[in-house]
Write a structure and sequence with these properties.
The chain has 411 residues and is an all-alpha fold. The chain has helices at 3-23, 27-34, 40-69, 72-90, 96-123, 128-153, 160-176, 192-196, 207-236, 242-246, 248-256, 260-289, 296-304, 306-325, 330-359, 369-390. It folds into 2 domains: 1-184, Growth Hormone, Chain: A (Up-down Bundle), CATH 1.20.1250.20; 196-397, MFS general substrate transporter like domains (Growth Hormone, Chain: A), CATH 1.20.1250.20. The model is unreliable at 399-409 (pLDDT under 50).
């Protein structure tokens, strides 16, 4: 791969995730500030569910339409340009219902660009297994930069988070047209079921994988509490530059991901997954008891635990899925895992989290966060016990390194 191509792909990834990081993390704070409606927390949960809905639909768009008829860089450019307009329009509505539909429509446009950006990158690489992580890391860097800018400027409740995302989306939309060509594949996926990856259903014949797959969906319920309400929680505690401080989670993730290949082979997939689920429990206990008086360290600990929470469960889960699937169906299996977790699991979780947070609204304002955080902690504990009791896997499954297919969102 040429140096100029590597630079182009790195810029693409950087901008791709600045967009997401700019509006997604702080949407809870924006909505709570702008829409003074009864049941706003439930509406916030519904708004976050839009991305989960889009995750379930985007495989059909990419697999059955985009890959067949359009060059990947061109369709990505069009989607980002339209997306920029929708992000701008999101700042012009005055009720959460209209806001939800705009975010849903935008999410339906944005989520396919994740797969398209990966396809563009893979198409230009001579050795994706070695080259892709060095390109993809610029996406994590973009997410961090978005958080640092928004947190430092203290604009989390303002429309500027969406305007920043809109501006970067327009820039990436234009930049996409000068990216290296990734031509259409010329043939459609034969059916909707293949676009979803149903050929990988054969994995469910393995009882250990079925147990893991169910646990992965369930653990997305506590995951959605963090994605949807952590920024609002920290701002409600008057934490200075909350969005910037939350980027410690991405730094943590970047560090812990380096340990995964080493630990995967030595302690086994079960112990890796157990460590990830235990981290979710510890995170929410830290949030429940953390405060700005004497327990500020617990708030920082809850954020930093993101590296263990995400990497040790989800990245390990992608690696485990690939090793169980084998070369023939690994792409379908990865797609199915993403559909189940960031689609089905997060959709259920966002709706539950919104209702729970809305239940613990205090009068005249604020929330009973201690009881709120205990809910995902108990759910994570339940998933942990289920996993301990039922998951049995042989230790022979090993991995030599991170796969190029591990390209899921790192929020």
């Amino acid at each position: 791969m040429k140096l100029t191509t590597a630079v182009q792909l790195s810029i693409m990834m950087f901008l791709q995730y600045i967009i997401w990081g700019a509006w997604y993390v702080t949407m809870v704070t924006y909505m709570a500030s702008h829409f003074k409606e009864p049941g706003i927390d439930n509406s916030i949960g519904q708004a976050y569910s839009a991305l989960a809905i889009a995750t379930m639909i985007s495989p059909f768009f990419v697999g059955m339409i985009a890959d067949r008829f359009f060059s990947a860089q061109r369709i990505m450019g069009v989607l980002h340009l339209i997306g920029a307009v929708l992000l701008f329009l999101a700042t012009k509505v005055d009720n959460s219902s209209a806001f939800y539909w705009i975010i849903l429509f935008y999410s339906l446009l944005y989520m396919p660009t994740i797969a398209l950006s990966n396809s563009i990158a893979f198409h230009q690489m001579s050795d994706p297994g070695k080259q892709f992580p060095w390109i993809r890391v610029f996406g994590t860097l973009g997410w961090i930069v978005a958080g640092l800018i928004i947190g430092s400027l203290k604009i989390e409740p303002s429309i500027y988070t969406f305007l920043i995302a809109a501006g970067v989306s327009a820039a990436l939309g234009l930049f996409s047209f000068v990216l290296p060509n990734t031509p259409p594949k010329g043939k459609a996926v034969s059916s909707a079921s293949r676009a979803l990856g149903t050929e990988s259903f054969v994995l469910f014949k393995s009882k250990p994988y079925l147990i893991f797959f169910i646990a992965a969906i369930l653990v997305c319920i506590p995951l959605s509490f963090y994605y949807g309400f952590a920024n609002g929680f920290l701002n409600e505690l008057n934490i200075d530059k909350a969005a910037a401080k939350m980027t410690m989670g991405q730094f943590s993730e970047a560090i812990f991901i380096l340990a995964i290949p080493f630990l995967f082979n030595r302690i086994g997939v079960k112990n890796m997954l157990l460590m990830g689920m235990t981290a979710w429990i510890l995170r929410y206990v830290c949030f429940a008891y953390g405060n700005t008086d004497g327990n500020m360290w617990m708030l920082y600990a809850g954020i930093i635990l993101h590296g263990v929470c995400y990497d040790f469960f989800f990245v390990t889960g992608y690696m485990y899925t690939e090793k169980k699937a084998g070369e023939k169906i690994k792409n379908a299996a990865q797609g199915l895992f993403t559909f189940a977790t960031y689609g089905v699991g997060m959709f259920i979780g966002t709706l539950i989290s919104g209702k729970v947070v809305d239940k613990y609204v205090m009068s005249p304002g604020g929330h009973d966060w201690k009881n709120i955080w205990f809910v995902p902690a108990y759910i994570a504990l339940g998933v942990l016990l289920y996993f301990i009791l039922f998951f049995r896997e042989k230790r022979q499954i090993q991995v030599a390194g991170l796969s190029e297919n591990i390209a899921a969102p790192e929020v």
